[in-house]
Amino acid sequence: MDASIAEQQRILASDWGGGKSPFGTDWAKFMMWIFIISDALTFAGFLVAYGFMRSISPVWPKQSTVFSMPLITFMTFDLISSSAVMAMAVGAAQSGNVKAAVKYLWLTILGGAIFIGCQVYEWSHFIEHGARLNHNPWGVPQFAASFFVITGFHGFHVLTGLTILAVVAIRAAMGKYSSTSVENAGLYWHFVDVVWVFVFAFFYLL
Amino acid sequence: MAHDHGHTGNRQYFTTWVWLLVMTMFALTIGYVSMPEALKAVLLVGTTLAKIILIGRIFMHLKFEKMNLVMLTFSPLLLAVIMYFMTRMETRMQDPTHVVLTHQGEVIPTGAEGHEEEHGK
Question: How many angstroms separate the CA atoms of A134 and A34, rounded?
Fold first, then answer.
């Protein structure tokens, strides 16, 4: 009998025995990682499809002649900065400094809102110049479609992130505070930043 | 514990932010400087990977996580590479029969035109 209990304890103590998380994280955070991985697959699909379209197109518009590169660079700077501030919010939340965490969360939201504002400006100019989902004045059929779909999906993720961050910030200010929720919101926000790093390099620079 | 974040402070976040900005400026320079497309692609992919590793390690605290979770998070990247090289086999470099049409139905000549090797014959 003692031997079977000892065996059971040995199994539970092992990584995959059911007694502890094999990934060393709590449940909520692990689920956020699973969501991020599945979302990363979506963007991987978009970017690979874009790479394929670029490969089959003999010509492609030079991005710097179509987009305002100073604006795109500013958007990148803004999102990287908001990601750094978000990391500070998580640090403050984990050390129990609620006031600083809420302050950094609102600064992150401000950074995200500026990014969305820039994106709206960029989209409106692109549309004004005649770009539509199924045709564009630059001659390459897939150019506008890939722009709208890739940056549109990313922009939607930024909007979703802003909503999540606002909910977390308001709840923290009301005293309904959990450092795990700040950390999970932070993971999502950094993921949005990671996606933009890819979009910036492959869509706007390459 | 794997998720003990006690050693990451604002100073390290600031340093990471500076490095990310430096790499962004480097990527921007690569985008503007005239060089062979293949070299540009390699440099941009390298810079992008360095940036995401930095964001993942420091901002997302992956340096505190177990290696199995770290490997799981990078699996989409591996799948993307596989998908890209799979579709590359169907590009103009590989398939001379590809035709690209404009919205008006006009044929855009591809780089494969005139390259009509009869494979396997």
Answer: 34
